[in-house]
Sequence to fold (421 residues):
Amino acid sequence: MSRFTYLILAIFTFISCNSSAQQIQTGRNPVPDPRNVKIENIDKVRGKLRTGAEQTELYLPYLKGKRIGMVVNPTSVIGSTTVVDSLLSLGVKIVKIFGPEHGFRGDASAGIHVDDSFDAKTGIPAISLYGKHNKPTKEDLADIDLMIYDIQDVGVRFYTYINTLQHVMEACADNNKELLILDRPNPNGFYVDGPILDQKLKSGIGINPIPITHGLTIAEYAQMLNGEGWLANKVKCNIKVIKNANYTHTMPYVLPVKPSPNLNTAQSILLYPSLCLFEGTIISQGRGTYFPFTILGNPDLKGKYKFSFVPKGIKGMSETPLHMNKDCYGIDLRQYNTNKIRKEGKINLSWLIELYNAYPYKDKFFDFKQSNQMGNFDKLAGTYDLKQQIIAGKSEEEIRQSWEPGLSQYKLMRKKYLLYQ
Fold:
């Protein structure tokens, strides 16, 4: 290359760089130069997702001088530190901790009642909302000025943390306490599907008329609870929300902490809306293994499937799982491409239909007493119809058609409460 060519390139590079600098300084460039932005704003410039809890600059001043109660569990983190420890280090006065199912530290198995205690690390009273009572009492709230709710949800009707939210909102409304919600993304928030809960089947695994995957973050669901008058006696809770930054419902989100002992992988969280229906059947969903909600099986399916596993008692996960110490044969979904769920936006009913057809003792398949699971099938499904449709040999498409017009009506109603696209 000639000296003349080098000279032309040098002049062109100088002009280009000077032009870019002029754009940054005069504001004509729509994206600020990160070099000129303060550290606390750098994530917003880069478009990094930030949970409500991580944005302490937005709510820390509001906590000053207040006695705080916190509804939290192990998912309540800022980076690698619990939100409780983080706020304590910043001088926030936390007087009580409230823990949902699995407890504040997350070491109780599903469905196991948790007693009140004192947090071993901080000495703060830890009140169980999954023991003697499911909502804070007047006495619990007497010395609290502001309640904070910060728990990761997975966007499924029968996942009990949304029930905890409802009970906390009712208690706050009854006792004139404000609730600050630190929002978190919904890993299953990209789709809405399933039958709407029949109110005759209202239970601890489903309270309100919503589908299996509701497509809302915790804060959006709180707004729906208020707006639709679903709180007890139609009370309204005074809520304040710290939104997720740079979040949309279609955004893939991998949780930094497992939301509960048996949802221990990103795969299990995405398969959970489909596989939890097996909780009301004689089929194991892998409880008692380290791969829950990614494998399915039963001892009576020997000879029909090659894949097998043996459930064992695992402390903190499943102490007495279904078919404990027995060889279970069935389906291995650990390598299932969950992008298919994202693409189709549907709960998968084919596995339920397949295993019902393969199981030799049809009258035992939906036997709740033998299944020894967390809830009977009708309560999990939210309808009496699904079980009868599977027994009758209905196709997946025929079953889906029966969810209308309720599902479409819910989707329309949901739009009123969305905080994110």
